[in-house]
């Protein structure tokens, strides 16, 4: 699971809006883009503060999500295991598991949440993160509602079949189950 989280975030962090026909959009100060592999989308924002904290929320076509938070001043190492407290204005996740990552000369962490997190993120005015009694980050989530709506539209576009998908015509000579035992032909 740790490798999946780290790899998923790396794919999303390096993604360009080349997947499908979805074009990257700026929605209420958040960038919404499709992942390069076409398996989901993400919203991201870099906050103008010391270390330029970057938040990235990814959503897979299957409905799975992951949140990454990175900062160029942080000393967390890739694969470090953490328990962090996440407090949103609508929802909280105390002692929630996260794993260290590094990307684009920044260090941080990635974690995933249950499906309801997306709604909490969209409705919330803030996301405060702490490591016990040490504050990690306090983020203003203004604009996360419209950005999350657009994120879902992007994922829906990823799920829709592409007009360039080509399917070979059914010729009728390929059996439905070519591995099924052959029926006995009547002796004649």
SSE inventory with pairings:
Elements lengths: L1 H12 L11 E3 L2 E5 L5 E7 L7 E7 L4 E7 L9 E8 L2 E13 L2 E6 L5 H7 L2 E6 L2 E7 L3 H16 L29
Antiparallel strand pairs: 1-2, 2-3, 3-4, 4-5, 5-8, 6-7, 6-9, 7-8, 9-10
Helix pairs in contact: 2-3
Verbal overview:
The chain has 188 residues and is α+β, with helices and mostly antiparallel strands. Helices cover 19% and strands 37% of the residues. The protein has a ten-stranded antiparallel β-sheet with strand order 1-2-3-4-5-8-7-6-9-10, sandwiched between helices. The longest helix has 16 residues, at 144-159. The radius of gyration is 21 Å and the shape is elongated. The N and C termini lie far apart (59 Å). Mean pLDDT is 84; it is low at 1-19.
């Amino acid at each position: 699971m740790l490798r999946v989280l780290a790899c998923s975030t790396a794919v999303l962090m390096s993604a360009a809006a080349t997947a499908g026909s979805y074009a990257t959009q700026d929605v209420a100060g958040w960038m919404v883009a499709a992942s390069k592999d076409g398996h989901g989308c993400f919203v991201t924002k870099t906050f103008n503060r010391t270390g330029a904290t970057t938040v990235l929320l990814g959503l897979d076509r299957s409905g799975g999500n992951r949140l990454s938070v990175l900062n160029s001043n942080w000393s967390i190492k890739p694969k470090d295991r953490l328990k962090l407290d996440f407090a949103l204005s609508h929802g909280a996740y105390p002692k929630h598991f996260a794993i260290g990552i590094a990307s684009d000369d920044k260090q941080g962490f990635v974690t995933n949440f249950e499906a309801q997190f997306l709604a909490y993120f969209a409705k919330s005015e803030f996301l405060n993160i702490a490591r016990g009694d040490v504050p990690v980050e306090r983020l203003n989530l203004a604009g996360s509602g419209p950005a999350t709506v657009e994120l879902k539209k992007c994922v829906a576009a990823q799920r829709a079949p592409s007009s360039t998908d080509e399917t070979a015509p059914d010729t009728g000579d390929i059996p439905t189950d070519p591995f099924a035992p052959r029926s006995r032909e009547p002796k004649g």
